[in-house]
Design brief:
The complex is a heterodimer of chains A (359) and B (180). Chain A has 359 residues and is of the alpha+beta class. Chain A has helices spanning 43-47, 52-60, 67-82, 88-116, 120-141, 166-186, 188-194, 202-207, 212-216, 224-227, 233-236, 248-271, 323-327, 331-335, 343-349, 354-358; strands spanning 2-7, 19-25, 28-35, 150-151, 154-155, 289-298, 301-310, 315-321. Chain A has one domain: Cytochrome-c3 Hydrogenase, chain B (Orthogonal Bundle). Chain A is 48% helix and 14% strand. The chains are: A alpha+beta (359), B alpha+beta (180). The complex binds iron/sulfur cluster (SF4) (2 copies). Chain A: Keywords: Iron, Magnesium, Metal-binding, Nickel, Oxidoreductase, Plasmid.
Chain lengths: 359, 180
Amino acid sequence: MPYSFPLGPYHPALEEPFKVKVQCRGEVIESATVEVGFSYRGIELLAQKRNWVEVITLIERVCGICSNTHAMTFCMAAETIAGIELPKRAAHIRTIIAELERLHSHLLWAGVGAEDIGFHSLFMEVFTLRERVMDTLEAISGNRVNYGMNCIGGVLRDIPDPAAHLPALDALAKGLGEIVIPTFTQNPTALARTRGVGRLSREQAVEWAVVGPVARASGLDIDVRKDQPYLSYADLGFESVVRPEGDVQARVVVRALEMMESVRLIREALLSLPPGPLRATQGLPEIPAGEATIRTEAPRGEAFYYVASEGGASPARVKIRTPSFVNIPAIEPMVMGQTLADLSIIQASVDPCISCTDR
Amino acid sequence: MAMLKTILGNLLRPSRTRAPADMPVVPPTYRGALTHDAGRCTACGTCAFVCAPKAIHFTQEPGVSVSWHFFIGQCSFCGLCEQNCPTRAIHLRADVPGSMNSASGDGLRLESVIRLQPCTRCGAAHVPLPAATMDALWAAGADEAERGYCPDCRRWAASARLRTAFIPDGAVAEGGRHDR
Ligand code: SF4
Ligand code: SF4
């Protein structure tokens, strides 16, 4: 006897509201529909009513996890319109913050994923590691979230003593290499809940236009950091991580190996921090008329910004397309034919970020 | 057996939970309790301009004072007001912000009153320059009498100085009395 079952919007697996309505026959999911829009805040419209300085603070609140990515991408768009060239030191600092943010986002996800499969001790291990990242972010920016590092034309805060952050990176690399990655890839409990679960084939990945780690776990080698290097990625060298399997396990492995790559990038950026100014401009920004589109690789995939200016005090239009916007619908093909109990880990494997999808 | 080993191993290891003593140090960049120094503020409005959640606003009593208001409930601790204040009147200190350590709601609002002063030349009420700024400006040797001037009179005095520098006293022709 088929029945339909609403999961959410108050969610057992995630902190944010979204709804998956599944049709089941017995234990098995036959189809699913995803509904979003429960935390809509109208940020794009608000952005047209705030001046160029205030918008950065506002845009930083698009997402609570990858807040820096959004503020940074917006600033990059404004810099493109105004023809401001970012000083090298600022580019390195932005890269460091962006990669630290990716680390903390992926670790957060790994912890939540571990909890979804009932693996609480792994959750604790992961969050102990994540705390090191948060401490580093706090030491650099003064805040654990919403770092407020970006301004149009550069960054607001310096990293005066780059070497001070290296021990935390060592501890992270050790923890990831010795505990998190082996547990996710070898522990029988973790394997039983992730291997072969929630498959998304390469063809489906193309069809559903997924981005970020979800695409890379289905064999699509797309990463803005490699395809269209921005900030310091071209200088630092970047290797993308791709897996062909397309299941939850592959998404775990892609994110885990990406974290190792992030640790390497941060270490290199810290060691090669070039001298120079933090900002290309002083005082309040003046943005001439024009428009720009910018893509960056957020922790969850490609973030796309379109910013238009009419030369006034506020942007004329800020269009934001976040990675989860395309990744969340791909839950529908992933859960088909899977058991109901796997629904929560499958949707968590996409790392859906609802607040940035709804904006 | 394996489980026994793990339990024994854990018993012999020190706790991994953070004790209060090994909390991470509060970084110097931490953005906590906000303070405002009325003595340095020129009521220029820059802080209110850059504050996205509109935590800062001004009220005025015409001819008497301008008040700078801050409501911590709207503050997002972005630190932009501190970064952009031209006279460094705002400071986000490393203490815990007021709203978090007070259940009664004290410290939620700040108000600084900036008294207007009459101009010593024309009498117009104006916001005086902060003492530090004045000292820096007047160290260059401006006329002490100009300290009490309003911005308009300062501008007038400056252009008068320029004029006398370019046009020697005797050379001012008849009818050359431009007032601006
Ligand atoms: S606090 Fe600073 S920015 Fe704000 S009005 Fe006073 S002088 Fe201007
Ligand atoms: S810290 Fe930011 S939000 Fe708070 S008053 Fe200053 S500008 Fe406004």
